[in-house]
TrEMBL record:
PANTHER family for the chain: 2-AMINOMUCONIC SEMIALDEHYDE DEHYDROGENASE
Record carries keyword Membrane: no
Pfam families: Aldedh
Chain ranges passing through the membrane: none
Keyword terms, alphabetized: NAD, Oxidoreductase
Family assignment from sequence similarity: Belongs to the aldehyde dehydrogenase family.
InterPro entries: Ald_DH/histidinol_DH (IPR016161), Ald_DH_C (IPR016163), Ald_DH_N (IPR016162), Aldehyde_DH_dom (IPR015590)
The protein, known as: Aldehyde dehydrogenase domain-containing protein
An MF annotation (GO) of this entry: oxidoreductase activity, acting on the aldehyde or oxo group of donors, NAD or NADP as acceptor
Positions of the Aldehyde dehydrogenase domain: 17-423
Matching Gene3D superfamilies: Aldehyde Dehydrogenase, Chain A, domain 1 (3.40.605.10), Aldehyde Dehydrogenase, Chain A, domain 2 (3.40.309.10)
SUPFAM superfamilies (UniProt xref): ALDH-like
Amino acid sequence: MIQIPALRFGKTYTSLEKATLVHHVTGEPVAEVSQVTGSMIARDVSNMERAHKELAAIPVRDILAMYKKAADYFLNAALPCGDTELTFDQYTRNLSATTGSALVFCDRNARKVHYVLDNIEEVIGGLTRGMPIEVLDQGYSTAGGRMQAFYPTTNVFGAVLPSNSPGVHSLWVPTLAFKIPLLLKPGREEPWTPYRVLQAFLKAGVPASVLGFLPTDHAGSADILRLCGRSMAFGDDRSMAPYKNDHRVEIHGTGYSKIIFGEDQADNWERHLDLLAEAVAANGGRACVNASAIWTPRNADAIATGLAKKLAGAKARPWDDPNCEISAFAKPEVAEAINAMVDEGLKTPGARDVTQELRGTPRLVKEGRCAWLLPTIIRCDGPEHPLANKEFLFPYASVIEYPQYDVLKRIGYTLAATALTDDPAFIAECMACANIERLNIGPLPTNRLTWDQPHEGNLFTHLYKQRALQHARKPAAV
């Protein structure tokens, strides 16, 4: 069994209290993870000014070179993992074992983290909207004859991380390039990715004093969000509610992502079936950018039936089957609870499970310690139905028929939206819609992201503020 310590900014810490991680199929222990307390977190955060100065003194080009090395190590090296070393393949197998996410999904999403590490300058350019990278060294730029100056908002960036897809870790990976130390609280079942990324950074030459890996409990997570000047957190609407109005915390919660048909494309729905299926079911349907609702002015019944037919053949497969289309739940009781929520919603008139009608078998599949939820397409008569605007950790989507002229007022918060339309007027309305964060126009699934654009908040503007600056002696242009 692997022993994974905490990393307290240059000091390895092994605690008496540990969290035991087990294989979701066999129940056999896989790892023990040391836990830190709130007082330890407070002590570490109080020492971050010195660590921040140490990182700030490193030229940004040197840091970017470390990222390139870290990318290679992350993918190709055997890296320390507590008291052992893991290759990339061994890492993804352990990741799949404790989270229940299919091995093929773990591999695919871990490579997204590698991509960000390997293409960090492109990512930074997107987040800063093309600002000269050297501004991170001297704090200002006079490019184009205009002065721009920035200052950091914190000495350390805290991240309270989830246990679902390793792809989410690409969101905090650029932090060190912005010269801000990292404090990571891993998800309980997913210490593997953040620990491996930090080990890749260490091997690439990043000072250990700017890297923290602090597994802790719920109270400790709250301490991180309270004590760090800037942070990000992942969770559902209920768990994130206390931080909704806290500008220091960047919330990554429920996405409520959507496909929206325009009047001009509603009759062409069949040509978009592959796109709809990818948007709903890619990565096992567990990402916040998976579509959880499809809105159309016409043909809702046909769209629901066509999409249900396309997804109804998905089967529960072993975690290491390369043909996996859905992931198991590491905790079967979670799958059972979600299944009960859908069934309870169906008791309200005005909705039907089109997928189950076609499949003829239950949505919930159980085998041994494992449980799966099969893809589910719900045809809702209107947006008021309880299942019309829901999001779950499996391929789920409602299909709603609603007129185009009023749809953007009714969709509510939407992390990612795909507008299937060529109508310039409707495109303009979508562009102006304050409910939508990410917008794809035309046949691009909601889950199709580009790394040179911000996702659910901008890490650079979270970590830096712009200030007015006048210099008596004109500084050199950057």
